[in-house]
Known about the structure:
The complex is a heterodimer. By secondary structure, chain A is of the alpha+beta class. Chain A contains 8 helices and 19 strands. In chain A, strand 13 (309-320) and strand 14 (323-331) form a beta hairpin. In chain B, helix 3 (65-86) packs antiparallel against helix 4. The longest helix of chain B has 34 residues, at 125-158. The interface between A and B is large, with 49 and 47 residues.
Amino acid sequence: MKKSSNENPLWRFITSIKLAVFLLITLAITSIVGTLIPQGESLQSYLEHYGPTLFKIIRALHLNDMYHSWWYVSILGFFTLNLICCSIKRLPFTLALYRKDNLNIDPDKLFRMPFKARWEISSGLDDAKKEAIVKAFSKNAGGITGKRSLSDGTLYLSEKGKWSHWGLYGLHASIIIILIGAIIGIFYGFKGQVMLMEGGITNQAIDPQTGKPIPLGFSLKCNSFNISFYDNGAPKEYRSDLTVIDQGKEVLHKAIRVNSPMSYKGITIYQAYYQAVPRVTLKITTSNGHQKTFSLPTFKKINWPEAALSFGVLQYLPNVHGVPAARVWIDNGAGPAQAIWILKNRAREIKMGPNFYKFLLIDAQERYMTGLQIKKDPGVWVVWLGCTSLIIGFIIVFWVPHRKMWLWIGKNDGKDIVVVSGQSSKNRIQFEKDFRRIKQVLEQHVGERL
Amino acid sequence: MHKFLFQLAVFTYLLATAGFLVHIITLKKGVEKTATAFLAAGFCLHTASVVMRWIAAGHPPMVNLHESLSLFSWATVAAYLAFQWRLRVKALGAFVTPIATVIMAASSMQQKDILPLTPALKSIWLPIHASICLMADAVLLMAFCLAGMYLMQERQIKGKKLGAVFKRLPSLQTLDAMSGLCLKIGFPLLTLGIVTGSIWAEQAWGSYWSWDPKETWSLITWFVYAALLHQRLAVGWQGRRTAIMTIIGFIVLIFTFLGVSLLLPGAHTYSTWHE
């Protein structure tokens, strides 16, 4: 590419390949940081782990979420700008290359091409022989694309892959298409989570970052959740049996697994995780004459006003000395709250203030909650389009050459001459082979050695 | 059976390595042919071992470190044999074969039991994504070897010691061109590996890109090779500087392949299962 001295220095800077390389290396080096510092954790955990000084740096440079930080996104933006400007700058050169009439060439120049051969036919060429040579050339070069008659002969051109000069633009545009897809996802999509008990139903997901609900526009019901295990105890399959209810009607019924999500109205539902939720049945007898049986999940505070008692299950273990056990938190307002372990079918009595309380764990059951990832991303197909054209772009840029082959049948100093020459924009090794073959074939037709 | 075939392949690769090393020292013509024959035989045994293991496991053997290293070695030998079948680059075998053998030895030292497939790995994208990535690694390993050979040869020429090493290695021009050829195959394969990984992540986790350390390092590798290709094709760099950058690129690539899983916190666990 030519350099013009009267170019705007800013334009020269922004369109330089050196800048592109510098930005690629900068992106490579800065990206490392986010793989060393865990991303997206709570601020408190960074303070604890890195201490106050490093914490300040992490906060100032957003290293806890660096790939979305102003400076990283700026580098990406600058890189994109550089890419676009480089393409604009290159455009006139490509256009000139594309528009160039390769038939409009002086036959004398053919012999300056990288690949060439020339025969002088002392015995002369008749029309039948000429025709045979042209035919052989056409067959082996892949068709004749142009022909020009000059005063002292005829020039034939076989040109292929002229369009491949545009591959580079396609390749670079693909990267911008991918970025556009990602931006569409950020602005018009969402990500949410849903936890559903078996039999549970919901019409909203929770934004994992803000904790705010996102309306789905339909309801999702979990009919059942199943886990299966291999013999060695490793998980084999997680399956949620789901029903979509839209405007009161069951419209879709599907079992989803990891790697096998379902989609409805542009929203995709993935099997993401699960949680075991124990449900404990407790019988409580108090010394002031109350008795009642409760069925409660973990972490739920239960108020029993008649007995002036609050309690809840803090922890559940399915197997302690062969029986289920629960750790129960109790508060009756008289003195500090207490937490005790009780085992199934073994009553335990404690004294709190003036009263005694007897706890009996009658039963405990583990039920499952399925964890679903909910996603809407209208940009994802744009990203796939970009990825596809990126790969095609690579194939064109690296492997599709613009190849030109000329055949000149004319006269030089009264003698009949045949010149064949060629040029390829890339993949020289293959072209060399092809050219050698054509040369051999033409040699047979010309009937004379060089 | 697959374990026996694997051991046999290791042994045959060792013989091939010995052959290539003897050849590069003695330059006896027949030795290189024999070494190549051993390598091809080892490759057949290795292929059989992989197929048998696939059948025995009932899933693609690309899951643990033993299997990944074994297939990396397999892909390297495949790439070398294919490359040498079309373009004969002298002395390349003496560099690529020992590396393939070392990778194979490293593989044989890992836990070899077949473990059942976790839910996240049960996907058609496992064989597609893993094999494309391994092919990319193998082709870029060859670019690395050719760049290393380039630097060795260049030192000979600069030191004006046109002696034993100079005679044995190909010309600088050939080495540079062949290394560039490998980059032109390896880089699109690397890109395709990242793309297929994204498609899989989208299907399994609902996110085609989540800046997980493995993903991020694959992108870092991509940036390094992209910079290198711009230097080569647009700026017109040749020779020493591109050779050094090819070597750096490969080190980053290997870190992405092995280092991330082994060293970095919370790395690609092949599952987001929060259990």
